[in-house]
Amino acid sequence: MAQGGLARKEISSHTYTVSHEQKPANVTTIENGQLTLSEFEKMLIGIGVFVSFFLLVSIVSTKNAINVSQRSLQNITSQNNRLNDENQSMTQTLDGMENDAINRVVKKDNLSIANSNVRDVTR
């Protein structure tokens, strides 16, 4: 117990003085309202600008590549639709020619076609 009291007396007996005139060594001074930048800070800003510019260029080129791909896909899709329409038109023309050929044979041989005698056959 006596030792605890001794330690408290020893700690309280030390006084510390802080001088307001001393400046820390790592703080830069402000002159004319401007902060000076260290070489590391300048290098960091330069690298940041370079990376930002590189990302901007890569985004723009990627966007252009996507637009070219979309245009190509749209051209292929429209060509596919045109070919499908043409195929459907040719199918209808062929069906019409088949009906005309059947009707010519029927007239030539003096036959008749009744709907009840015709079977529907799918392909």
Describe the structure.
The longest helix is centred in the middle third of the chain and has 70 residues, at 39-108. This protein has two helices and no strands. The model has no long low-confidence stretch (mean pLDDT 82). It is mainly α. The chain has a domain at 41-109. The radius of gyration is 47 Å and the shape is rod-shaped.
**Structural class by helix and strand composition:** mainly alpha
Helix % is 55-70%
Total strand count, please?
A: 0
**What fraction of the residues are assigned to beta strands by DSSP?**
under 5%
Count of alpha/pi helices: 2
- Give the termini separation: 109 Å
**Element pattern in H and E:** HH
Give the averaged pLDDT, no decimals.
82
Per the principal axes of the C-alpha atoms, what is the gross shape?
rod-shaped
Low-confidence stretches: none
Specify Rg, calculated over alpha carbons: 47 Å
Major sheet: none
What attributes characterize this protein structure?
123 residues, mainly alpha, 0% strand
